[in-house]
């Protein structure tokens, strides 16, 4: 068994601790993680947790944690980052969202997995949802997607925090880049940039 770094939990040969910088986030970020995503070595949700002060990851197979989350989410102060038919462009409501938001929910998984999470937990559809009008281009190149404007969970969360609170999110991007640089998978698995 390969030895792992106690801080970043990556194998010691691909440790990313030197790239970790702290980011103070003014809201609670809760990442709802599809069960298949938690074991994925290329997962970016755990990178968010390494940087930010108030991040929680809840796996979808933890029914009790998901039930607790449902009971504590308030539609006046909680937002879901998901591009649904009823979602609103984050950039167009920036000031209103920033002033009332206390909890940001982010689904971690592929687009198909995110949709499955919404079907599994229909209460999420009652939470106001937001999408991006002017998202930056992805820098996440070690996973494939057919979605042209698709961002990693880390990039989507960072863009949201920067848009709403003008937070310097370069520590997130730098950490994602360090993870990609250390990733030992085949080049053929990398996305064209």
Describe the structure.
The protein has helices at 45-51, 63-72, 94-100, 111-120, 153-165, 170-182; strands at 28-33, 55-59, 78-81, 88-89, 103-108, 129-131. By secondary structure, the chain is α/β, with parallel strands linked by helices. It has one domain: Alpha/beta knot (3-Layer(aba) Sandwich), CATH 3.40.1280. It has a six-stranded parallel sheet with strand order 2-1-5-3-6-4. Strand 1, helix 1 (45-51) and strand 2 form a beta-alpha-beta unit. It is globular, with a radius of gyration of 16 Å. Its EC number is 2.5.1.25.
List keywords for this structure.
alpha/beta; single chain; tRNA processing; about 190 residues; 6 helices; DTW; about 30% helix; 6-stranded parallel sheet; Alpha/beta knot
Spans with pLDDT under 50 lasting ≥5 residues? none
Instruction: Tell me roughly what share of residues is in helical segments.
Output: 25-40%
DSSP helical segment count: 6
What best-fitting shape do the alpha-carbon axes yield? globular
Task: Find the structural class using helix and strand composition.
Answer: alpha/beta
Domain DTW: 1-188
Enzyme class: transferase
Family: Belongs to the TDD superfamily. DTWD2 family.
EC number: 2.5.1.25
Overview in brief:
One of its GO terms (molecular function) is tRNA-uridine aminocarboxypropyltransferase activity. This protein is an alpha/beta fold. The chain has helices at residues 45-51, 63-72, 94-100, 111-120, 153-165, 170-182, and strands at 28-33, 55-59, 78-81, 88-89, 103-108, 129-131.
